[in-house]
């Protein structure tokens, strides 16, 4: 669970830890929170939801519209509503409920369940801990009180409300990430960020091969295990799965990536990186975005897991390029550490394109 606190803080609660994360200002706080949520939450979550979120929790959807259900989901309370995003989004649809449409809401403390009711829908959600259930319910009541007291505001535009939390550089064609990769990233993020040597230590070969086969055929049911060895198996399976894909960076373009990596001026080098990303097929670019965003989160925990951006690059270069040299090592390290700058700065990219057009004229 993750909730906002006063003084530019947010609280993260797991089954074993409670962390208070602080920042110098609200913008930095939101930036840190988005980094975390974008590698945990499934696709389809919008910036409008996350940017105005006051509480985010992992829950079990136990009932919807009178029908019994037992599916894992992420629950967000944002400025104007509540949304439920299933973990396995390819089998279930996301739900969104405007706060203004809620006719009834109640908490069942003995079962850690919150029920939300509108004129045409009823949803019951079970939390893993009583503390998280109570905290989330308190935030919901506060949000409802604030909304009733606030003046009416114009509705946000459809495009702004649905702007994805996982943007890529060409917003007209986002591409998609293979479900197997999404599943591994989510699993490793939840269970493996504190595992020492994550991605460097090898999984058990027999189990890894079975995992890769399962990820190829039925990623939603692949038997990923949450103990330390299970995490290492999942990391090895993810690397092997990526290697077995058609190259995310086509062989015919790898020489261009090498040329970009040796550009001495950083601004020019990063501009070349962005141009190379724009040349990739949409699905390739979206997949690299997801992978490097995940690796950024892994190195955030480097004091615990001993995997800095450099250490990760040493492990990952052979997976992405099927070779290893110092130039590709620097490139991969920069793609991890500067993930946001390279993948999520559409405005900067647009300015670069305008400058290129002016140069041509």
Q: What is the element layout, followed by pairings?
A:
Blueprint: E1 2-5, E2 9-13, E3 18-22, H1 26-40, H2 47-51, E4 55-64, E5 67-78, E6 81-86, E7 95-98, E8 104-108, E9 113-117, E10 122-127, H3 130-149, H4 158-161, H5 179-191, H6 205-217, H7 228-244, H8 254-261, H9 266-279, H10 282-300, H11 302-305, H12 309-321, H13 326-337, H14 339-343, H15 346-360
By secondary-structure content and strand pairing, the structural class works out as alpha+beta
* Uncertain regions spanning at least 5 consecutive residues: 153-173, 346-361
- How far apart the termini lie comes to 53 Å
Query: Main β-sheet, in a few words?
Result: 10 strands, antiparallel
Number of strands: 10
- Tally of helical segments: 15
Instruction: Assign an overall shape.
Output: globular
Helix and strand sequence: EEEHHEEEEEEEHHHHHHHHHHHHH
The value of Rg in angstroms is 22 Å
Helix content estimate:
40-55%
- Proportion of β residues? 15-25%
Overall mean confidence score, pLDDT:
80
């Amino acid at each position: 669970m993750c909730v906002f606190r006063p003084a530019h803080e947010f609280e993260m609660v797991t089954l074993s830890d409670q962390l208070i994360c602080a920042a110098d200002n609200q913008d930095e706080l939101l930036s840190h929170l988005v980094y975390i949520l974008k590698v945990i939450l499934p696709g389809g979550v919008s910036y409008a939801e996350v940017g105005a979120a006051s509480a985010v929790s992992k829950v079990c959807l136990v009932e919807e519209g009178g029908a019994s259900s037992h599916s894992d989901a992420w629950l967000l309370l944002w400025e104007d509503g509540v949304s439920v995003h299933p973990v396995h989004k390819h089998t279930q649809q996301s739900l969104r409920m405007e706060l203004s449409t809620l006719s009834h809401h109640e908490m069942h403390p003995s079962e850690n369940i919150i029920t939300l009711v509108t004129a045409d829908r009823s949803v019951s959600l079970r939390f893993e801990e009583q503390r998280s259930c109570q905290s989330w319910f308190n935030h919901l009541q506060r949000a409802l009180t604030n909304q009733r007291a606030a003046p009416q505001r114009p509705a946000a535009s459809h495009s702004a409300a649905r702007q994805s939390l996982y943007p890529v550089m060409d917003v007209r064609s986002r591409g998609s990430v293979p479900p197997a990769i999404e599943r591994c990233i989510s699993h490793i993020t939840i269970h493996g960020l504190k595992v020492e040597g994550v991605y460097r230590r090898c999984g058990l070969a027999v189990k890894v091969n079975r995992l890769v086969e399962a990820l190829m055929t039925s990623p939603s049911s692949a038997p990923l295990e949450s103990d330390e060895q299970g995490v290492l198996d999942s990391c090895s399976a993810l690397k092997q799965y990526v290697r077995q894909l058609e190259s995310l960076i086509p062989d015919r373009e790898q020489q261009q990536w090498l040329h970009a990596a040796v550009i001495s001026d950083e601004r020019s080098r990063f501009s070349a990186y962005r141009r190379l990303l724009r040349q990739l097929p949409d699905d390739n670019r979206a997949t690299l975005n997801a992978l490097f965003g995940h690796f950024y989160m892994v190195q955030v925990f480097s004091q615990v897991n001993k995997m800095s951006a450099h250490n990760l690059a040493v492990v990952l270069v052979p997976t992405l390029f099927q070779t290893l040299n110092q130039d590709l090592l620097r490139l991969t390290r920069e793609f991890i550490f500067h993930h946001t700058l390279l993948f999520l700065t559409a405005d900067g990219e647009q300015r670069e394109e305008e400058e290129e057009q002016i140069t041509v004229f």
